[in-house]
C-alpha cells in the first residue's frame, strides 16, 4: 500500500503571513491538528501544530482582557510560531516507510509532496486506518494466530491446509516471536467449517496462540 492511497488530498493549509488567529479558527472549524504552511501559494516552508499554538498562546493566568488577547493573536504571524523543520514523504512511498518516519521523528503527520508541490497530508489516523484495513479488522471471518517455524515454505503449507477446508483468506500478516527460530502468522479467514478447521490445524502440529 502506498501513501497516495491513504493520504488526504488537497489538504487545508495556511500562508506563512496568515495570522495565528486565522490558523486557530481553521483548526477549530475543520477539527484538525496540523496545518501545512506555504509561501507564495506553493512552497512548503513549515508545519503548524496544536502544540505550536498552545506554546504561543497567552497563559490562562494572564491579566489581559479577551479583546486584547484576540488583538494579539491577530498580530502574530504563522511564520513566527510554526515548526520550520518539516519532514515530508512522496505519494508513491510505501505506507510503512511513512509510519517509520513518524515513529522515529515523533511527529503526528507528514506533508506529502510531488514535484516540489504539496499534494496531500498523512496523519497518525491515516496510518492506523491503513493498519486496521490490512489486518481485515472490519471485515468478516475469524482471526487465527499461529506460531510457525521460521523457515521457507511454512506459509504455503498453512495455505494448502486452509484450501482443503474451503477457507478464504481475508488478510495475512506476520510478527516476530520471542524465539528467533519461530514466526507468528496472523490470519483472518472465512469458512463454514471453523471448528473443524481449528481441530485440523492442531492435528497438523501447528501451535495456535489465539483463535476467535
Residue-averaged pLDDT: 88
DSSP E strands, number: 11
Percent in helix: 25-40%
Percent range for β-strand residues: 25-35%
Largest sheet: 4 strands, mixed
Tally the helices. Answer: 8
The value of Rg in angstroms is 24 Å
Report how far the terminal alpha carbons are from each other: 27 Å
Tertiary shape:
elongated
Order of strands across the widest beta sheet? 1-7-6-5
Low-confidence sequence ranges: none
Structural class: alpha+beta
Sequence of secondary-structure elements: EEHEEHHHEHEEHEHEEHE
Q: What does this molecule look like?
A:
- By secondary structure, the protein is α+β, with helices and mostly antiparallel strands.
- Helix content is 35%, strand content 30%.
- It contains 8 helices and 11 strands.
- The strands form 3 sheets. The protein has a 4-stranded mixed sheet. Strands 9-10-8-11 form a 4-stranded antiparallel sheet, with helices on one face. Strands 2-3-4 form a 3-stranded mixed sheet.
- The radius of gyration is 24 Å and the shape is elongated.
Give a concise summary.
The chain has 212 residues and is of the alpha+beta class. The chain contains eight helices and eleven strands.
Task: Name the descriptors.
alpha+beta; 8 helices; 11 strands; 212 residues; 35% helix; single chain; four-stranded antiparallel sheet
Topology:
Elements: E1 8-9, E2 14-15, H1 20-30, E3 34-39, E4 43-49, H2 50-56, H3 66-75, H4 78-81, E5 89-90, H5 95-105, E6 109-114, E7 117-123, H6 124-134, E8 142-149, H7 154-164, E9 168-176, E10 182-190, H8 194-203, E11 207-211
Parallel strand pairs: 2-3, 5-6
Antiparallel strand pairs: 1-7, 3-4, 6-7, 8-10, 8-11, 9-10
Amino acid at each position: 500500500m502506498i501513501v497516495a492511497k491513504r493520504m488526504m488530498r488537497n489538504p487545508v493549509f495556511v500562508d506563512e503571513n496568515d495570522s495565528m488567529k486565522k490558523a486557530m479558527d481553521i483548526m477549530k472549524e475543520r477539527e484538525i491538528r496540523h496545518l501545512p504552511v506555504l509561501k507564495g501559494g506553493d512552497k512548503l516552508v513549515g508545519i503548524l501544530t496544536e502544540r505550536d499554538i498552545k506554546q504561543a498562546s497567552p497563559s490562562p493566568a494572564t491579566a489581559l482582557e479577551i479583546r486584547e488577547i484576540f488583538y494579539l493573536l491577530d498580530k502574530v504571524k504563522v511564520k513566527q510560531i510554526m515548526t520550520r523543520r518539516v519532514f515530508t514523504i512522496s505519494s508513491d512511498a510505501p505506507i510503512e516507510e511513512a509510519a517509520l518516519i513518524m515513529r522515529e521523528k515523533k511527529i503526528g503527520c507528514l506533508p506529502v509532496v510531488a514535484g516540489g508541490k504539496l499534494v496531500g497530508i498523512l496523519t497518525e489516523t491515516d496510518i492506523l486506518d491503513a493498519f486496521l484495513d490490512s489486518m481485515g479488522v472490519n471485515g468478516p471471518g475469524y482471526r487465527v494466530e499461529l506460531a510457525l517455524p521460521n523457515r521457507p515454505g511454512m506459509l504455503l503449507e498453512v495455505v494448502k491446509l486452509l484450501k482443503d477446508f474451503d477457507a478464504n483468506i481475508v488478510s495475512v500478516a506476520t510478527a516476530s516471536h520471542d524465539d528467533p527460530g519461530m514466526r507468528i502468522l496472523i490470519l483472518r479467514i472465512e469458512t463454514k467449517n471453523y471448528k473443524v478447521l481449528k481441530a485440523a490445524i492442531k492435528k497438523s502440529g501447528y501451535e495456535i496462540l489465539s483463535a476467535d
